[in-house]
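User: Can you recover a sequence for this backbone? Please restate the input before giving your answer.

Assistant: Of course. Working from this structure:
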């Protein structure tokens, strides 16, 4: 029975999660499988791969053929390397102890590289977060400055209106005494004209009275 090591899709829509399985090559992709060898989660950064290396090597030694994607995952976890080392033991190139030593050294180096990659990702996230915070702080400061400028403009407008009102009130108070003074001076100018008229007419009346007296005396 030809066996393939391949991925079987699981997870939600838009967030796929895969099982790495050994299955009959004639079975459907997401159908029955012979053994679950691990998982692959592409939703994390970096992607999470968890493979049972020894079981994968057993299947590879028994002739199982991985798909291209499965081969990449087996290489990522060192299963292909260990399979190569085990094949070397069969050929007498080295012992089983050498296999474990070399594989342990590879795993340690791989872990160091992963730690560096994780540190880079964490640093990138921290830098991105710092930039976002700085941008948000800048926006908040701009909003605050705009609000303070608007308040200052409103206060200046109110102060200008109050100053104008005070100036108009002062001008009105200054005009009021002048109008009152003009009103008091107008009757004083007319008073002598009314008193002079009877004074001018008095001699004429006395002259008429004298003439009448003289006429009467002449008649007698």
């Amino acid at each position: 029975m030809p066996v393939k090591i391949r991925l079987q899709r699981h997870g939600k829509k838009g967030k796929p999660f895969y099982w790495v399985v050994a299955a009959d090559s004639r079975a459907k992709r997401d159908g029955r499988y012979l053994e679950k060898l691990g998982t692959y989660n592409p939703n994390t950064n970096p992607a999470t791969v968890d493979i049972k290396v020894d079981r994968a090597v057993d299947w590879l030694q028994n002739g199982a053929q991985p798909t291209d994607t499965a081969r990449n995952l087996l290489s990522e976890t060192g299963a292909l390397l260990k399979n190569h080392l085990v094949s070397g033991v069969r050929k007498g190139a080295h012992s089983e102890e050498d296999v474990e030593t070399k594989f342990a050294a590879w795993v340690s180096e791989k872990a160091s590289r992963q730690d560096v990659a994780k540190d880079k990702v964490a640093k990138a996230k921290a830098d991105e977060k710092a930039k976002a915070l700085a941008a948000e702080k800048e926006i908040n400061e701009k909003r605050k400055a705009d609000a303070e400028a608007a308040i200052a403009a409103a206060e200046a407008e109110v102060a200008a209106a109050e100053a104008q009102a005070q100036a108009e009130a002062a001008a009105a108070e200054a005009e009021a005494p002048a109008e009152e003074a003009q009103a008091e001076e107008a009757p004083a100018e007319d008073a002598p004209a009314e008193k002079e008229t009877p004074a001018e007419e008095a001699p004429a009346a006395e002259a008429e009275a004298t003439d009448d007296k003289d006429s009467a005396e002449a008649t007698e």
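That completes the design. The two ends are 187 Å apart (CA to CA).
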